[in-house]
Amino acid sequence: MNSMILAVSGVTIAINLLLVILVALSLLLCLVVLMQRPKQEGLGAAFGGGMTDQAFGAQTTDVLQKGTAYLGTAFFAVTLALSVLVSAQNSGARLDESSLKQTEEQVASEENAAELAEVVAAVEEEVPAEEVAEEVSIAAEDVQESVEDVKEAVTEQVSEGAAAVEEKAEELSAEVDEAKQ
Predict the structure, then answer these.
(1) Where are the transmembrane segments (predicted)?
(2) d(Cα 168, Cα 156) in Å, to the nearest integer?
(3) End-to-end alpha-carbon separation of the chain, Å?
(4) Which helix (H) or strand (E) holds 43?
(5) CA–CA distance, 177 with 7 (Å, rounded to integer)
(6) Which of 37, 69, 147, 164 fits as disulfide partner to 44, beta carbons 3.0 to 4.6 Å?
């Protein structure tokens, strides 16, 4: 876990360093662009058009154009590297959260399994498995006898009910016959 913290802090340091470099490149790029002389001497004259000729010589325009190209390329490279590092940092944080959640679930399930094993062991110590099996078979025989008794009782009740229905049907038939005459 400590190596993960060190890796994240290393990425954070790299991101902050690249941000400082990006700001510096942005300022330099703005300065170089503003120093260039347009065809009509616009903002380039504000910084003293003759001064750039003296500093860089007669090839001032070429030097400033190349500087703009190099600074622009560096700006885009640093921006790309920065976006990759920030993306890696964010995905690493998501992975850390999900792995932490999985680890917590695993620990919880292992604790539950350990508790269940302790309960089973305690039950086995209190009541040996052979006694339980014997009691279960006795209970099963008792249940089977009870089921047979219930079957007999239900059969008797159905028979009595059928006989009562037959008697009632005969009585009703007799009444119908008397009513017809």
Answers:
(1) 6-34, 69-88
(2) 18
(3) 105
(4) none
(5) 105
(6) 37
pLDDT in tens, 136-151: 778 778 778 878 888 8
Tell me the C-alpha distance between 89 and 94, whole Å: 9
Token representation of residue 85:
């590092």
Task: Record the tokens describing residue 5, joined without a space.
Answer: 């913290």
User: Environment class of residue 44 by beta-carbon count within 10 Å: exposed (0-12), middle (13-18) or buried (19+)?
Assistant: buried
In 10 A of CB 78, how many CB atoms?
19
At 7-25, the pLDDT tens digits run 556 788 888 999 999 999 9
> For the chain, what are the domain ranges?
2-126, 128-181
Supply 178's token pair: 């008397």
Can you tell me which residue has the tokens 């910084």?
Answer: 47
d(CA 143, CA 130) in angstroms, rounded, equals 20
83-135 pLDDT, tens digit each = 988 888 877 656 556 666 666 666 666 666 777 777 667 666 666 667 767 77
